[in-house]
């Protein structure tokens, strides 16, 4: 579907509603390869990354006793870019499927060189599509799991289409507190939060973009590497 603080975003509902409509298209983009237009979303079969084969969906299932708050075992991921690095605490306990998928893709080098292709100021930055156009993914999708936590500044969540089990490799980082504007019912699984380097995320977010509805990054910043550290 198809993101700092802007006071108008929280206190001028009409204007913010229009921004949300555009952001809706941003968040939907994932391995299910939705349309990048502002029209109805379509969900063709996921296509493989042009970078080559990927490991395949991890053999992990949702936590049957999902915790009431985001939780992990201390595993972190460090995303390096030309603007600096930021570190994500991964929620291995509350989002085991999404986390295992992200870790597997990162360790395989899948994200190396992949850009943050969408910038929606005051809302999110989105990346993880190897085509850089919002239509790519790893060639598979992963299982849905409960959304645990709130969409606050620094939270990292999976992008998806409205279709069930439609997450692949694309993810977004919240630039602001979105609890009043991004409902959990959208199913965007929260699998981490930036714990260091949020200023780097903000630096990516001020890059030029095409504006609504697609907010395509015009000078996209690439992830040079994503490294995972287990406790």
List keywords for this structure.
231 residues; alpha+beta; Cyclophilin; eight-stranded antiparallel sheet; 4 helices; 8 strands
Walkthrough of the structure:
It is a single chain. The protein is of the alpha+beta class and 231 residues long. The chain has 4 helices and 8 strands, in the order ααββαβββββαβ. It has helices at residues 7-11, 13-28, 96-107, 198-205, and strands spanning 76-81, 84-90, 116-120, 124-127, 155-158, 171-174, 190-196, 223-229. The radius of gyration is 16 Å and the shape is globular.
Task: List strands and helices in order, with pairings.
Elements: H1 7-11, H2 13-28, E1 76-81, E2 84-90, H3 96-107, E3 116-120, E4 124-127, E5 155-158, E6 171-174, E7 190-196, H4 198-205, E8 223-229
Antiparallel strand pairs: 1-2, 1-8, 2-7, 3-4, 4-6, 5-6, 5-7
Largest sheet: 8 strands, antiparallel
What general form does the structure show? globular
What is the percent of helical residues? 10-25%
In terms of per-residue confidence, which ranges show pLDDT below 50 for 5 or more consecutive residues? 1-26, 28-49
Number of domains: 1
Total count of helical runs of at least 4 residues = 4
Can you give me a brief rundown of this structure?
The chain is of the alpha+beta class and 231 residues long. It has helices at residues 7-11, 13-28, 96-107, 198-205, and strands at 76-81, 84-90, 116-120, 124-127, 155-158, 171-174, 190-196, 223-229. The protein has an 8-stranded antiparallel sheet, sandwiched between helices.
């Amino acid at each position: 579907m198809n993101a700092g603080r802007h006071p108008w975003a929280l206190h001028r509902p009409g204007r913010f509603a229009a921004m949300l409509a555009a952001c809706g298209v941003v968040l939907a983009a994932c391995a299910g390869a939705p349309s990048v237009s502002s029209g109805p979303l379509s969900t063709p079969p996921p296509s493989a990354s042009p970078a080559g084969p990927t490991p395949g969906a991890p053999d992990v299932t949702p936590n049957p006793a999902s915790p009431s708050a985001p939780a992990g075992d201390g595993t972190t991921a460090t995303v390096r870019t030309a603007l600096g690095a930021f570190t994500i605490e991964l929620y291995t306990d509350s989002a085991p499927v999404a986390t295992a998928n992200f870790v597997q893709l990162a360790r395989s080098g899948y994200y190396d060189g992949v850009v943050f292709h969408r910038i929606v100021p005051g809302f999110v930055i989105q990346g993880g599509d190897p085509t850089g156009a919002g239509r790519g993914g790893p060639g598979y999708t992963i299982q849905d799991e409960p959304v645990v936590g709130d969409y606050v500044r620094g939270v990292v969540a999976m992008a998806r289409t409205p279709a069930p089990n439609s997450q692949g490799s694309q993810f977004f980082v919240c630039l602001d507190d979105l609890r009043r504007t991004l409902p959990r019912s959208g199913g965007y699984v929260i699998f981490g939060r930036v714990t260091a380097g949020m200023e780097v995320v903000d630096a990516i977010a001020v890059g030029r973009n095409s504006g609504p509805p697609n907010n395509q990054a015009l000078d996209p910043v690439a992830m040079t590497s994503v490294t995972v550290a287990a406790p």
